[in-house]
Design a protein that fits this description.
6-stranded parallel beta sheet; 33% helix; single chain; two-stranded antiparallel sheet; globular; 7 helices; alpha/beta; 15% strand
Length: 203
């Protein structure tokens, strides 16, 4: 090896399974609990904040809204929970909200723009998780969704875990077609969860 320490380097994934203590409602606001109970199916979207590369938003917030509005035509009772705990661009958020309002879907979208202490209650109630990023790392949120049995969709812009359903980045028709199949016949992904805890302790 070129480097003497190469054999001593160990790559450990960032994912640790959540510890599920208490009831899901204990971690969510009353308004959010009420929203979930009033909808049979919902898509979960999560991004820490808006992020841009060459002026383009990388987490796929616009794609998320477009896909949701198209899926609503097939699934009228479908809802969307849009989570962005560190809101850093209220102007962009306003554009997304206006698009939803224009289509008359205000009552079917919940804008969670403050932090939630635990995400597993949302993951366990969702019908699918969507991550339409233009680039990405090894997403902890994606692995948590898969680990908890939530069917998850992500762009093919980068490596994704084996159990994740990928669609061609930039091809919203591909995303809609695959999401439609899952919403029509929901099922949990088959995934072997490596919690990485022992590997972290061994470093």
């Amino acid at each position: 090896s070129k480097y003497k320490f190469a054999n001593e380097v160990k790559v450990v994934g960032p994912y640790l399974p959540p510890v599920e203590i208490g009831q899901p409602d204990d971690y969510l606001s009353k308004d959010l609990v009420s929203f979930i109970k009033s909808h049979k199916q919902f898509i979960l979207f999560y991004a820490e904040s808006f992020a841009y590369n060459d002026g383009k938003e990388i987490y796929g917030t616009d794609t998320t809204i477009d896909a949701f509005m198209q899926l609503k035509k097939e699934f009228p009772e479908l809802a969307l929970i849009f989570c962005m705990p560190n809101m850093n661009d209220v102007e962009h958020l306003g554009i997304l909200k206006e698009a939803i309002k224009k289509e008359g879907y205000n009552a079917d979208v919940y804008w969670q723009t403050t932090g939630i202490s635990e995400m597993w209650p949302l993951i366990k109630g969702a019908s699918l998780y969507l991550r339409p990023t233009s680039t990405d790392g090894d997403s902890v949120m994606l692995r948590e969704a898969l680990g908890l049995g939530l069917q998850s969709f992500a762009s093919d812009a980068t490596f994704r875990p084996e159990a994740c359903i990928t669609y061609k980045y930039g091809d919203i028709s591909d995303l809609i077609n695959k999401a439609t199949q899952v919403l029509r016949a929901p099922h949990s992904p088959k995934v072997e969860v490596n919690d990485n805890f022992d590997d972290m302790l061994s470093i």
